[in-house]
Amino acid sequence: MEADHPTTQLWHYHAHILHEPRFQVFGCLTNEYVMDMFSCNLETRLNFIQANQKCLHQEDAELMGIDNIGPPKNIYLPLSSLGSCHWASNQVSDSLAIAATYGNPTFFVTMTWNTVWPEIVSQLQPGQTFTDIPAMVVHVFKCKLALLIKTLKTMFSNAGHVLYCIHSVEFQKWGLPHAHILLKYTASCDSASNINAVVSAKIPDDPLDALLVCTFMTHHHPPPQNPLSKYCQRVQADGS
Question: What is the pTM of this model?
Fold first, then answer.
């Protein structure tokens, strides 16, 4: 198994077990195992951080030119802790520094996991839904996200080559993974012809492409007599 970042043996072992076929049929028990696995690994990391808080503070103090520090009164999560204030601040600082150096992004692209992707549907047992195979859902989404980013970097010849590409992944309602992607190309793409060569608001002529656009990329609004909703709504052509 290939990891994006260095990982612990405990995390590697738990993730390896998820490849066993039995977790494809356990349903809610699979979700419970994943949560227990994550909680166990997280608790181990937090205990280590708490026990070594003085060492972590000492490293920060040395960077600031301070020789000795007293016992820490508060416990802070380090930069390596995903989701911590230090981690989030570092991510934002890096992104702003990149934008300040190379300019604002050319395109903002979003990608949402699709519940009817054939790679997911083909793995479902009778009576199952996508929530019963979370490991497969995340694996397929990661592969498709990597393919999309690779495609975005090479398919627009009129935009030049990519100066930078920044993306983040979040989990929306019902646990569906969703990605935000920022790309900066060498060409400005500020003219109508350049923009139309990359993206268009017109329905494609190809019947299959038109069906996909109308199904997944069009927001329909309810009739005026219906109460307004704070969420984007998809309704049928008859307004139902």
Answer: 0.75
Q: How far, in Å, CA of 170 to CA of 87, rounded?
A: 15
State whether 135 and 221 are in the same domain: no
Residue 90 lies in a domain: no
Q: What is the pLDDT of residues 92-138, one digit of tens each?
A: 999 999 999 999 998 899 998 888 899 999 988 888 888 888 888 88
Express each pLDDT in 188-216 by its tens digit: 777 777 777 778 778 888 999 888 888 87
Long-range contacts of the stretch 7-14 (C-beta < 8 A, 24+): 8/41, 8/44, 8/45, 10/40, 10/41, 10/44, 11/41, 14/40, 14/41
192 and 115, same domain (yes or no):
yes
Examine the fold and report which residue of 20, 42, 76 is the final residue of a domain before the chain moves on: 76
Q: Give the domain range for residue 113.
A: 102-200
Q: Is residue 240 part of a domain?
A: yes
Contact (Cβ atoms closer than 8 angstroms) between residue 180 and residue 174: no
Helix axes 28-51, 9-17, angle to 10 degrees: 180
Q: 146 with 66, same domain?
A: no
Confidence of residue 5 (pLDDT cuts 50, 70, 90): low
Residue 61: HSE in the Cβ half-sphere, 13 Å Cα cutoff? 13
Lowest mean pLDDT among 52-66, 157-171, 186-200, 202-216: 52-66
> Which residues fall within 8 angstroms of residue 19, CB to CB, at 6 or more apart?
1, 135
- For residue 75, what is the DSSP state? -
Q: What is the edge-to-edge ordering of all strands in the sheet holding 177-185?
A: 107-112, 177-185, 162-171
Number of structural domains (the chain) is: 3
Q: Is the residue at 236 inside a domain?
A: yes
Q: Give domain status of residue 1, yes or no.
A: yes
Two tokens, residue 156: 């627009």
